[in-house]
Amino acid sequence: MSFFDKIREGLKKTKQSAQNNVNAVLATFRTVDEDLLSELEDSLILADIGAETAMTTVDELRERSKLRNIHTKEDIKAELCDILCEKMKGDSALHLDTKPSVILVVGVNGVGKTTTIGKLGQKFVSEGKKVLFAAADTFRAAAADQLEVWAERCSADIVRHSEGADPSAVIFDAISAAKARGTDVVICDTAGRLHNKKNLMNELAKMNRVIERELPGASRETLLVIDATTGQNGVNQAESFNEACTLTGIVLTKLDGTAKGGIVINISSRLGVPVKFIGVGESADDLLEFDAKAFVEAFFE
Fold first, then answer.
1. Which of 28, 56, 66, 162 would you label with 282, given CA atoms 20 to 30 Å apart?
2. Cβ–Cβ < 8 Å for 219, 173
3. What is the per-residue pLDDT across 212-238, written as a single tens digit (0 to 9) for each?
4. Which residue from 267, 281, 102 is spatially nearest to 189, judged by alpha carbons?
5. Sign of the C-alpha dihedral, residues 136, 139, 145, 149?
6. Do the beta carbons of residue 252 and residue 226 sit within 8 Å?
7. Among 242, 164, 178, 181, which residue's Cα sits nearest to residue 211?
8. Any long-range contacts for 286-293 (C-beta under 8 Å, 24+ apart)?
9. Are 144 and 176 in contact (CB under 8 A)?
10. DSSP 163-231
């Protein structure tokens, strides 16, 4: 199955929902007027693109329709896709240029952080890289056990401590091990508690200080994992974590299980943080490098 086909299949529910909404609006199309634009805005909100992003999208469509004299349904769809693609512009590549490089993976419990780490590890190992997992989520029961299963599955190393240990101590030991073993990428799991944002911020800040002290100048990525089924709450999560630790990218999981995948457009547009991966299935090769153009084309195909 090709890259585009995987996105198309994974977004089946989303695509059908978005198509049905937009096509219903365009079914009686005669001219680009305020009634049409208002209905298009509502259809985008129903696809979970968010009120603010939907409004700015339609504002841009209004201006383009005046400048380009849009006459057909196909032209409207093409302009709509182009606008949404531009809203997700950003550097979607991972920058892991040093040895070792570090990926800090954050997100609330239950969004698929540990599974995402396992899939990333499998991707890097398949590319010939030496990978080490840091099991720094020491607060959730069996988190390290789950990560260890992934480590065995993809032939990655792992550093873990006992439950309740200091997460920053795990990071320190993982970096020390990575230096000694010639590791290419250290991927760090973290706790996902958001009930006390101050503690979360302090914990993440401490981890970042350890990484900076032990690996000054190293390539670093901070990836937020969000479950697409959380809808607009995903925006709140992204804002909170971006405040706690500057995010470099977003991984959106479980897109195959929601009819409202437009949340990815909303988050990227609102925060200016690029989406780097999307999850469209359970297997390791269902974690796809994000391509905004392919995503939007599949969204409205």
1. 162
2. no
3. 999 999 999 999 998 877 777 778 888
4. 102
5. negative
6. yes
7. 178
8. 286/6, 286/10, 286/119, 286/256, 287/116, 287/119, 287/120, 287/123, 287/251, 288/3, 288/6, 288/7, 288/10, 289/92, 290/92, 291/3, 291/7, 291/92, 292/85, 292/88, 292/89, 292/92, 293/85
9. no
10. TT--HHHHHHHHHHHHHHHT-SEEEEE-----SSHHHHHHHHHHHHHHHHHHSTT--EEEEEEEEGGGT
User: Measured at the alpha carbon of residue 219, what is the angle toward residues 107 and 91, in degrees to the nearest 5?
Assistant: 70
Pairing of strands 101-106, 220-227: parallel
Q: Which two tokens stand for residue 56?
A: 């700015």
Q: What distances in angstroms separate CA 29 from CA 15, 20, 34, one per listed residue?
A: 21, 15, 12
- The span from the CA of 261 to the CA of 254, in Å, is 9
In angstroms, how far is CA 184 from the centroid of its own chain?
22
Tell me the C-alpha to C-alpha distance, in Å, between residue 178 and each of 17, 152, 153, 172, 204.
46, 17, 19, 10, 20
Calculated CA dihedral for residues 27, 29, 33, 34, nearest 10 degrees: -10
- The band of 116, judged by pLDDT with boundaries at 50, 70 and 90, is very high
Print the SS3 string covering 11-25: CHHHHHHHHHHHHHH
Longest dimension (CA), the chain: 68
pLDDT, tens digit, 9 for 90 and up, residues 165-195: 999 999 999 999 999 999 999 999 998 765 4
Query: Which pLDDT score, from 0 to 100, does residue 256 have?
Result: 66
Beta bridge partners of 157: 132
DSSP 137: -
Predicted local distance difference test score (pLDDT) of residue 194: 54
- Phi, psi dihedral angles at 140 (to 5 degrees): -90, 125
Burial label for 182, CB within 10 Å (0-12, 13-18, 19+), is exposed
